[in-house]
Amino acid sequence: MLRQCPKLTVLSVRCKHDSAGSLAQIRERLATGPNFQDFVQNPTQSRAEWEEYEGKLRREKNETERLRLPPWLKTTIPTGQNFSRIKAQLRELKLATVCEEARCPNIGECWGGGEHGTQTATIMLMGDTCTRGCRFCSVKTARNPPPLDAEEPRRTAKAIASWGLDYIVLTSVDRDDLADGGANHIAETVREIKNLNPNIFVECLVPDFRGNGESVRIVAESGLDVYAHNIETVEDLTPFVRDRRANYRQTLKVLREAKEINSSLVTKSSIMLGLGETDDQIEQTLKDLREAGVDCLTLGQYMQPTKRHLKVNEYVTPAKFKVWEDRGNELGFLYTASGPLVRSSYKAGEFFISSILKSRREKSTKLIE
């Protein structure tokens, strides 16, 4: 279920926002703000390298050789004072991070602050061991992981409160060994965070709970702001990419139910490209997500974490990612992030979604007044 970089992303971007009375006004304000590419390392250089690149981007049928990594996917080795400080603090708190477990390519930029000084980190709830074995994910798996740490919700909330942040994304492993799939543990963490700072926006990237509607309700009513669950790939590839317990239609059902339970939620999902999907299949997936009421969408390049995992079938060009970004906007998603290094949560994503949430909060406050 986990993406390569789904995160408890800790975003420290603060801006003043005017009240917006409609979706059109929100989009207009986002359009005049920083562009998604403003948050990506060296976008101009990446484009120049792409235009000069002459390597092979797609494996032919029955080919077994791995594709050479194109220049726009090469990232720097993590270094720096900020990177070391965040790593040391997370170790001290005994918190697992999906940044490391899933070998995220953005870890150096996120933990180090990057060009814009926006530090992000990722906390993975319920331990570092998943009960599922998706063929794209490097998080370790076991049939019976260690029991939950009852103190984790409070410890996590205390750490987040001390960091003084605006936007948090919580993610977790799948815990099919638990009757509720871990829903109560996630909900308790959200409540603890909101108790310490009710102004923090909380996004949860959650499991599918095997389609259990009660577990979906527990999380949807916990006080979170954004309910995220990744569809990962197109329907035809789902049986070959995801664990057998994950199901394309089940994912759509969970996202639809979350919105029906709590209509004020922003819902979000993510798709990996480069696994052999066709344009028609991607188009259908986008339409299915919109039909399920999903508000926000991210599309990123699948990158093989180890030799034991699925090989990359194609490296999708930045220009093609832009096509899908435009298509997502045409279909009516509130926000679409599409690019080779985009993951389920990425710094620009939290910036834009927090803009939407702040506009809604300001509008609600004015109506009460």
Keyword list:
about 375 residues, alpha/beta, 8-stranded mixed sheet, 8 strands, about 40% helix, globular, disordered N terminus
Gist?
By secondary structure, the chain is an alpha/beta fold. Helices cover 39% and strands 10% of the residues.
Q: Give the helices and strands as they follow along the chain.
A: EHHHHHEHEHEHEHHEHEHEH
Radius of gyration: 19 Å
- Termini distance? 43 Å
**Largest pleated sheet:** 8 strands, mixed
The pLDDT mean sits at: 77
**Oligomeric state of the chains in view:** single chain
Number of DSSP-assigned strands:
8
> What is the 3D form?
globular
- Specify the helix fraction band: 25-40%
Label the structural class. Answer: alpha/beta
Low-confidence stretches: 1-21, 33-45, 97-102, 106-120
State the helix count.
Answer: 13
Strand content: 5-15%
